[in-house]
Amino acid sequence: MSNRRLTLVGLDRIGDVAAGDDLPAMLVDAIAAAGESLEPGDIVAVAQKIVSKSEGRTVRLADVSPDDEANQLAASTGKDPRLAQLLLRETRTVMRQREGLVIVEDVRGLVLANAGIDASNVSADGQSVLLLPADPDASARQLRAGLAKLTGVAPGVLVLDSIGRAWRQGTVGTAIGVAGMPALLDLRGKPDMHGRPLETSELGVADEVAAAASLLMGQADERCPAVLIRGLELTGDGKAVDLQRPSNMDLFR
């Protein structure tokens, strides 16, 4: 019998999160409500949405004044000019655009649709949007430190978002912030089952964990914005930026 086990526990008793809330304390309470406590080696995966909300990244569209560039982008894509203004503010480079969609490299170096700006599950009237955390890796480090202070255990922490991929349909949970665990595992030089050394294998382990957690979180009204993950033996302290492919190695840009 295999002794390999991976356990994921959805943390669905967190409730609404607002700017300034003590998110580590809310996570500790949710872990206890699930009948668990943090153990060494655990990973806590947290949806970007509640991280952004706690960090005050909600913007009312009524407070945004579009400039000429934003108006031009709105006219060519059919987007609200105020949303276009926020999109440009969060973007390094607009890479592709068509009706209803803009693909960008954002200020964090992520390649994604609409700079990750989202209106779902943000406000009842639909007149507010949520920006990604300004520095998701820093957000992950702060959450890890807060959890360690409250529990005495410093887990790995992932901040994840649902992001589309080139050449593939559908979005997948993707790590945009990492602390206390590796993001990218370099397996080059390790032997395969026949003793041959691996030559090119690098594993985006943080993305794999994020995708697994995203299955429990859901995408609509599940109200499960965090997941406790147990059973992985990961050592190291990487960053989500480790997963970003350098532009000189990107054959698709």
How does this model look, in words?
The protein is of the alpha+beta class and 253 residues long. The protein folds into two domains: 7-51 and 133-245, CofE-like (60s Ribosomal Protein L30, Chain: A, 2-Layer Sandwich), CATH 3.30.1330.100; 59-129, Alpha-Beta Complex (CofE-like fold). 26% of the residues lie in helices and 25% in strands. The protein has helices at residues 23-33, 48-54, 68-77, 81-89, 136-151, 205-217, and strands at 7-11, 43-47, 58-60, 91-98, 101-106, 111-113, 128-130, 156-165, 168-179, 185-186, 202-203, 226-230. The strands form four sheets. It has a five-stranded mixed sheet. Strands 4-5-6 form a three-stranded antiparallel sheet. A two-stranded antiparallel sheet has the order 3-7. A hairpin with a 2-residue loop joins β8 (156-165) and β9. α1 packs across α5 (136-151) and α3 (68-77) crosses α4. The longest helix is centred in the middle third of the chain and has 16 residues, at 136-151. The protein is globular, with a radius of gyration of 19 Å. The N and C termini lie far apart (47 Å). The model has no long low-confidence stretch (mean pLDDT 90).
